[in-house]
Amino acid sequence: MALSREQIAQRISQELQDGYYVNLGIGIPTLVANYIPENMEVMLQSENGLLGMGQFPTEETIDADLINAGKQTVTMVKGASIFDSAESFAMIRGGHVDLTVLGAFEVDTKGNIASYMIPGKLIKGMGGAMDLVAGADNIIVTMTHASKHGDSKLLTNCTLPLTGKGCIKKVLTNLAFIEIKDGKFHLLERAPGVSVEEIIKVTEGELVFEGDVPEMQF
Amino acid sequence: MAGFDKIVSSYEEAMAGIEDGMTVVSGGFGSCGIPENLIKEIYRKETKNLTVVSNNCGIESYGLGLLLPKRQIKKMIASYVGENAEFERQMMTGELEVELTPQGTLAEKIRAGGAGIPAFFTATGYGTQVAEGKENRQFNGREYILEESITGDFAIIKAWKADRYGNLVFRKTARNFNPLAATAGKITVVEVEEIVEVGELDPDQIHTPGIYVDRLIQGTFEKRIEQRTTQPLSATTGE
Looking at A38, A41, A47, A60, which residue is catalytic? Predict the structure, then answer.
């Protein structure tokens, strides 16, 4: 079975480490916040200028002056800090964020990522995504493995305008956990009940694996 | 004795001197921390052919979105312009020129502009459309692109508290681009929720020193929320 959005978030949460500063993109990455292990301290960075993002507020505590990068109203955890946008991207560009999780339309075997524009259709802008992929070392891209029409999103060459060049090393899709290395996709894990053959079928770029590919554990 | 007294008595006075074709740098992220009344004044004056620099361009009928129906913006420099149908329409038809700029690069362009630094190298955007026509250079084996800084004829700012010297304190994530924009205007205009006596603000807690501020006005704010997300009271542990 392909992973649900929640399962994708849950699998990513296994990559968290105690003491990590983490930036979560809009969409599935945001859900990772729901699966931070209880015995672990993790600080969420929101690039509009907040380190230590908390949960959504209640109707009583809602504050128009406190939002996240998705413009949603949020709260702060104890020990949070607030800063301006230049400081926020100094953290990101300077490589101080330990893990970045973001969505994409396509990735390719060279580690390129396309995530912000579909020419003629969707031109909303890159927001902070280009800075995040250029600044972070540890990035996990999450997306569905193929489009609704079955077209692979893991390609030899991205077809859409790039968000970043040669910067992606890990991809978690609804079918597989993949590492990008030496110009190839390396299949590390597969979703429970999904065969290697099924993954190969929807992976356009060269996919390699060693021995029995383990199933993801939850 | 005017001295360092930056207070003006009306929004008309606050935006006096803004002319067609000028560049305006605005603080704000989404609808959070935007100088909503200063934007309304630009709308009222019907100033046209503006180049506007801001992370976003408001939503329909609020924030910088107000300046769209009368085609007051000629060129928009922003990182994210979604959720605004009129903006999209003007962009698609070519009525509005748009320079999409990565958010961190935009922040640094404004910061550098205000700090007298004409350009800087960044890895952000290397190998993408953003890099087209820009100088590349390698440092320590990595490729970077040259980005030029930004200044404006006017900077429009929303802060929380100020004293009449123009020392500013921002509140929560309404800070965002505001302190940067404040440094980058030939004329920097600030609207605040409260003006306190000189000496009341703790010098250690001032975010923007008054040297950057030319005009100051106290206003009332709608503070519209774009994405109202909440949860039941019992589930919260935040703040």
Answer: A47
